[in-house]
Amino acid sequence: MKVKRVTIDEDLRVAFAIRKEVFVKEQGVPLEDEFDQFDTLNGLCEHILVHYNEQPVGTGKIRFIDGVGKLERICILESYRKFGLGKIIIKALEEIAEERGASQVKLHGQTQAKGFYKKLGYRIASNIFMEDGIPHILMLKELSRK
Description:
It is built from four helices and eight strands, in the order βααβββαβαβββ. The protein has helices at residues 9-26, 31-34, 85-99, 114-119; strands spanning 2-5, 45-52, 55-65, 68-76, 104-110, 123-124, 129-131, 134-142.
């Protein structure tokens, strides 16, 4: 397993292909809702890819809002979801947040994944809300200052 920060357009296209497979094809998110103005390499956010057996199989991104790291579009191709890669993606994004001086991270987690995020130290900070037609909750985590 390897985590790679996305720094070139080809890797960004690979991350987009993974997101399209998971969110658009599998979960039914409209294609026009999947990508936003932060999906670039212009420094507004950072994207990562996770590889399993040299294959890119998962991705996520982080952007910063008022000093808080917001983890977004975290996904893994279906056949690779039982290898602990989600935890690796979250930890890599949290490390980026710490590098940038953030003391807290947040995410909009699908309600079906709240147990996963709770195990990683996140707490529920909202009622259920709909995003892209899928029930979500706001989750927060304080980062340890080193």
